Amino acid sequence: MKTAGGAMSRLPFFLFLCLFSFFTASASTKQGQVYIVYLGEDAGAKSKGAILDDHHALLLSVKGSEEEARASLLYSYKHTLNGFAALLSEEEATKLSERTEVVSTFRSDGWWSPHTTRSWEFVGLEEGLSQGWLPSGAHAGENVIVGMLDSGIWPESRSFSDEGLGPVPARWKGVCQEGDSFNSSSCNRKVIGARYYLKAYEAHNGRLNTTYAYRSPRDHDGHGTHTASTVAGRTVPGVAALGGFAAGTASGGAPLARLAIYKVCWPIPGPNPNIENTCFDADMLAAMDDAVGDGVDVMSVSIGSNGKPPRLPDDGIAMGALHAARRGVVVVCSGGNSGPAPATVSNLAPWILTVGASSIDRSFNSPIRLGNGMVIMGQTVTPYQLPANRTYRMVYAAHAVVPGTPANVTNQCLPNSLSPKKVRGKIVVCLRGSGLRVGKGLEVKRAGGAAIVLGNPPMYGSEVPVDAHVLPGTAVSMAGVNTILKYINSSANPTAYLDRSRTVVDVKPSPVMAQFSSRGPNALEPSILKPDVTAPGLNILAAWSEASSPTKLDGDNRVVKYNIISGTSMSCPHVSATAVLLKSAHPDWSTAAIRSAIMTTATAYNAEGGPIMNADGTVAGPMDYGSGHIRPRHALDPGLVYDASFQDYLLYACASEGAQLDHSFPCPASPPRPHELNYPSVAIHGLNGATTVHRTVTNVGEHGAHYSVAVVEPMGFSVKVSPTSLAFARTGEKKSFTIKIAATGKRSRRLKRKYLAGSYTWSDGVHAVRSPVVVLVA
């Protein structure tokens, strides 16, 4: 289970699974489990009342009485799609799934969770821009409405001031739903609407524990406030995290956009309700249905599935996004925090813009001076400092545990594992892995340690997420902790002191792919490359809930207005804001055109001109970052776009999963192959010979444009684009071309079952429209 800050902290999945099962089993009612019954496209000219009657009638066909049928209904989806969520037994769900009007019936499980300044200046770095980087054509997203599906909002934050904003757009149809500590005055001309959804959550978990969550759109957790301010927070000077780190002016990417809040994520009952959140399909689908009906233009969803991704017809986010896209709403989702393992990326539908996470050019340096004179550079945002130049004894956690601690976690500083006698007054070296990073600091403090040094195991390499620990401390890379442990093991009296920490900018190289960012290939359909792009997601500063401490640990009573956390949850709103800017500048563009503009203008190079790297020092590729790192300014003028329609997506589902997603569109006997979807990237799975791919581009630039193609071929394959030039007489004109990909010669065994990457780029001397080409060697 990912945490609210994405990679901020984690429980071992097996431990979470046991806890989740234990605490939720008793919540299942005699009425059954929550199922979503999906009926396809909305019911057209039917009134909302008539649609509701149809849903009741379907339930009555499997229930014993009309009263029971009505009582079992949780949500009726009727704005953009046709369907409902209800409490059903497995037998009742099976009967409904057999009816001809039903497309799919699936359980609404809580196996979804949130994926959790300077970052905006950084994404404009290649233009040499400062805080005034926003192009005039985008108007800072003015009057574009972005819907946030998350844990709610802290409306009093200065990031959500409506000072100077005009009236709420007349097309807005939403509401400001009142509840605990949230009334109509909590909304304004910035936060123009707010709703909350927890029927499926309570059906599964029982009544909400309001100690850890507000029964309202108010954010107790902090995650939703963080993502909302990253998308559309106002420009706020004099902002810093606890301890004065990352001081400067905070701003969302689209500071004049309007926010609509849809609270769908709630605490998991158990030992860490402050830390772990869950989100149910039925609640999220209701929110997405309402959001489109309310009039949002962009949806930002920093939420994803855990474990094996569901089939598209059984995926609430995918189905909600499909019908939102048909109505012109761009849906942006986080890709997940299960990297760097392959095939871990989530939110895989091609009508969703899926985002990975990378770093920016800022660090929080905290030198560690060892007793032998060596200096190891750590990173931290803890506000506590040890006395300057005072030396402390240093101990490795594995040498200081209480008897009986399991051998495989002796170095993890898990709760109650450290011996106070062995660590009191010392700097304790712990390793990341099992348990919460901030929890390890709490354990060191409990045992009387003076400070914590948190080291990376091999899987995390050089990537160092920072934390506001409850005691002095810092975190170090794998190489750093190895040097420290070598010193401890070779010294009879190892000592160290921690220098003062400070914020450093212009760090090189940047960006670097975050190790936690989930990687491709696409586990459902490898012929569609996912993630689509990457954006800043490591150590991001944004607004925070004042009901939540920076660590979210019980016993941490510190209150902060802004906080630094990491995750694809943080990169997703960067791309959402970019979509808002494009919506503002090009209101007539389709959702596919906006997605294409963001993807084809992304870069595979860092700010210094070298290739984007992974945190372990290897060169990153499309399976890590998709089309590349976003460049919002370039996306506003992409030159050419790859467009796609609702029907194209239905054909894709027919080909990819044999799934008919809408009764109005039966699957043809031979639908186009999945890689024939007019997507801005090309992925070929298991090629052993040759194949031809078709693409069509639309000119969104000037009249009389003339483009030529340049190709970078994957190792061992030829890529031939025909024709090699495209001439456009007018804006809006379309041109088609083919891409023939063929194996050439023999390939070594070491390349078997590996993805090899190349690209093709259309250029007119002003625009460079780049598409990655990825081939899996058969």
UniProtKB/TrEMBL annotation:
GO biological process terms, semicolon-separated: proteolysis
Domain of life the protein comes from: Eukaryota
Family of the protein in this entry: Belongs to the peptidase S8 family.
Signal peptide: 1-27
Stored PROSITE patterns: SUBTILASE (PS51892), SUBTILASE_SER (PS00138)
Active site feature: 150, 223, 569
Pfam name, any one: Inhibitor_I9
Gene Ontology MF: a single term: serine-type endopeptidase activity
GO cellular component, one term: extracellular region
PANTHER family on file: PROPROTEIN CONVERTASE SUBTILISIN/KEXIN
Ranges where the Inhibitor I9 domain occurs: 34-107
Designated name of the protein: Subtilisin-like protease
Span of domain Subtilisin-like protease fibronectin type-III: 676-775
Keyword Oxidoreductase appears in the UniProt entry: no
KW Transcription regulation (keyword) present: no
Annotated keywords: Hydrolase, Protease, Serine protease, Signal
Residues in Peptidase S8/S53 domain copies: 141-605
Domain PA: 409-482
Organism (species): Triticum aestivum (Wheat)
